[in-house]
Amino acid sequence: MKIRKASLNDLKQIAELYFSEMSKQFENVGEESITTKEFKKRLKKHFKKSKMFVLDIEGIKGFIWYFKEGKEYNLEEIFVIEKGKGYGKLLMNHMLKKAKKQKIQKINLDVHFKNKKAQRFFKKFGFSERTIEMSLDLKNQ
Question: Could you say which of 1.10.357.140, 3.40.50.300, 3.30.70.1560, 3.40.630.30 is the CATH number of the domain covering 2-123?
Answer without folding.
Answer: 3.40.630.30
